[in-house]
Amino acid sequence: VAQAQNSIAGVLYGQGNLSEAAEWYGQALRTYQALGDQDRAADQQQHLASVHADQGKLGEARKDYEEAVKQYTNQSRKATAKAALGWLLAQQGDLIGAAECLQDAIGIFKQTGEKEQRATSLCRLSQIYSDNLEVEPAKSSLATCIALADELGGPYVADARFFQGHLLLIQGDLEGAWEAYQSARKIYEDLG
Questions:
Q1: Sign of CA dihedral 66, 70, 71, 77
Q2: Using CA atoms, how far apart are residues 127 and 90, in angstroms rounded to an integer?
Q3: Which residue, 27, 36, 37, is CA-closest to 6?
Q4: What is the pTM (predicted TM-score) of this model?
Q5: CA Rg, the chain, in Å?
Q6: Torsion angles phi and psi, residue 168, rounded to 5
Q7: pLDDT at residue number 132
Q8: Closest Cα partner for 88 from 115, 52, 43, 142?
Q9: Are the beta carbons of 52 and 60 closer than 8 angstroms?
Q10: Nearest Cα to 106, choosing from 92, 133, 124, 132?
């Protein structure tokens, strides 16, 4: 039953029916909780967070992500929720909380060997540091991100170049930013 509820919610979410999707994700959450399946219940909590964020209900989204982080027993999924919470906190202007969440997630991703998630989180962390004018931590995060991205290839390289452009722009290096953004654009175009 819970799988069907989750699937219905996913279709509604994809169609942009956010209120109905939230109702169905809530039903799936309660069903998984009744079954004692903590990780799948936390998945539903995380889906609710996405819906609430899309609805502009950032306070509710934050609570949902925080609850998902508490519920997860699977470390990889916990790290994904932490990274999402960090990104949400950044959108709310809590750059310190955002950086802490992303650093925690990056540490878990490193332990679990999830290079793709780690690279994405490092790029986002570099942006948060850049936006907070913390240039050295931004450079450090970005350097690790670029090294991982070069190893992974494809969109990860494009993302790393984009965030490199962001940092260079904040530093006032317009030529370097232009080159990094152009490199990212070309890779994105080549990827289709």
A1: positive
A2: 10
A3: 27
A4: 0.86
A5: 18
A6: -65, -40
A7: 86
A8: 52
A9: yes
A10: 124
